[in-house]
Amino acid sequence: xxxxxxxxxxxxxxxxxxxxxxxxxxxxxxxxxxxxxxxxxxxxxxxxxxxxxxxxxxxxxxxxxxxxxxxxxxxxxxxxxxxxxxxxxxxxxxxxxxxxxxxxxxxxxxxxxxxxxxxxxxxxxxxxxxxxxxxxxxxxxxxxxxxxxxxxxxxxxxxxxxxxxxxxxxxxxxxxxxxxxxxxxxxxxxxxxxxxxxxxxxxxxxxxxxxxxxxxxxxxxxxxxxxxxxxxxxxxxxxxxxxxxxxxxxxxxxxxxxxxxxxxxxxxxxxxxxxxxxxxxxxxxxxxxxxxxxxxxxxxxxxxxxxxxxxxxxxx
Length: 316
Ligand SMILES: Cc1cc2nc3c(=O)[nH]c(=O)nc-3n(C[C@H](O)[C@H](O)[C@H](O)COP(=O)(O)OP(=O)(O)OC[C@H]3O[C@@H](n4cnc5c(N)ncnc54)[C@H](O)[C@@H]3O)c2cc1C
Fold this sequence. Notes:
Blueprint: E1 6-9, H1 13-24, E2 29-33, H2 41-44, H3 58-74, E3 81-90, H4 98-103, E4 107-109, E5 121-130, H5 132-145, E6 150-152, E7 167-170, H6 176-180, E8 186-195, E9 203-206, E10 214-218, E11 223-226, E12 230-231, H7 240-253, E13 262-272, E14 277-283, E15 286-292, H8 298-315
Parallel strand pairs: 1-2, 1-7, 2-6, 3-9, 7-15
Antiparallel strand pairs: 3-5, 4-5, 8-11, 8-12, 8-13, 9-10, 10-11, 14-15
This protein binds flavin-adenine dinucleotide (FAD).
The site of flavin-adenine dinucleotide has 41 residues, from α1, α2, β8, β13 and α8.
């Protein structure tokens, strides 16, 4: 039987990865999205191979490791993916967390000379950093090369959003909630400041204290400083007082940032759900594969969950 065409709704990191995996497997795919650029949550992410604000399960672990392998394969200046040393530091001692301990790539205890003043403990690991200012355009280029058109338009409802024969993949991040009638999805707001990079090459995550988890991530052209996780907050505007606090805290962890200029700012809303929704459903007379609710880990889970979504498409 000929394969049915697929329409992916959403052009953040999750939707674009789903579209590419399906195209690589020989499906006719197109993407429909309100927008694909700076206003997506994906553009606001720093983005580390890390899995906060998402379900803790074996399947998440599998998706993360599948994504890790693919990110490492695609690393390079053209993709914005590069391996970077990341230290996680704390003022207090970390509570034991067996799930995370079994999760992380090999890490070692930080030496005393690797801890910022006032921090008692830390670990160091090498993980991929995904500079989304390069990675998202690269994914869009891969789509163009694979013959996947990206149509920029609002989808008000699933009914009539694509030809009747198409399978729909719903990968619209927080926008999936209203489209699927899913009240379990909620925003966890994050704010970032982009600073001039005085030459930093190492990521720092501060796991405790105000604004935790605070992250300081040097990318190719800037340093992303971000942190506060505000559950249920929708405000899209950056708050100046929060920004000043972020920059102050970042300079405590990385003193070289003390005089760095703020050159940009963004707010993003993590699409958080008790569980990532990865399931096929008959909805409004359509075959729909849901792929949303990746919380604070959409980049880190992108390739693994895209493969799982493509498997579901192929079972329909
Ligand atoms: C401050 C911050 C830091 C983060 N750090 C990390 C990190 O270090 N590592 C990590 O893995 N993740 C991180 N995340 C989380 C990550 O950004 C998200 O999990 C991920 O971006 C979700 O991707 P998505 O494609 O599902 O959603 P989005 O990127 O929001 O994309 C949704 C897409 O759907 C479209 N859409 C929505 N509704 C409609 C509609 N009705 N009609 C048409 N189109 C629609 C949008 O236009 C967009 O194209 C961070 C997030 C924030 C905010």
